[in-house]
Design brief:
The protein is 23% helix and 31% strand. The protein is α+β, with helices and mostly antiparallel strands and 139 residues long. The chain has a domain of 84 residues: Roll (Thiol Ester Dehydrase, Chain A), CATH 3.10.129.10. Strands 1-3-4-5-2 form a five-stranded antiparallel β-sheet, covered by helices on one side. This is Acyl dehydratase. InterPro entries: Fatty_acid_synthase (IPR003965), HotDog_dom_sf (IPR029069), MaoC-like_dom (IPR002539). One of its GO terms (molecular function) is fatty acid synthase activity.
Length: 139
């Protein structure tokens, strides 16, 4: 983890990009076990097909966890003040997530200097899957 001092954070700064390997069935099974989210749409091919999907797909909360990982690789989790996302599209098997963030604003709030950060997860084709914002206290 890299901690960035507030004096070195400016509007427009990019968070270090996070590239992940393609999503596979093992990743989905492991996340289901770790999270307790055993919804069969994410782990059972037959169920997914009966639901009209070609195959299983990633849990939305798995993507949100990766977005959180992007932010907490930049600043410690203890500095996270708000974390909001919108799930824009399904993340399919074989998609390789690419996560990015950008500082939108540096502000004083509740006695702290904070950065408002735009965050996004796209797949390796550049298709947006999750968008959101985080509010992070700076040292």
């Amino acid at each position: 983890m890299t901690t960035t001092k507030k004096s070195s954070v400016s509007v427009g700064d990019a968070l270090p990009e996070l590239k992940l390997p393609p999503i596979d069935r093992a990743t989905l099974a492991l996340f289901a076990g770790a999270s307790g989210d055993h919804n069969p749409i994410h782990i059972d091919l037959d169920f997914a097909r009966r639901a009209g999907m070609n195959d299983v797909f990633a849990h939305g909360m798995l993507g949100m966890a990766w977005v959180g990982r992007l932010v907490t690789a930049w600043q410690p989790q203890s500095k996270l003040r708000r974390f909001d996302v919108r799930f824009g599209a399904i993340t399919h098997l074989g998609n390789a997530p690419v996560l990015n963030g950008k500082v939108l604003e540096v502000l004083e709030q509740d006695g702290e200097t904070r950065a408002r950060v735009q965050i996004e997860m796209r797949n390796h084709y550049g298709e947006s899957k999750i968008q959101g914002e985080a509010l992070v206290a700076l040292d």
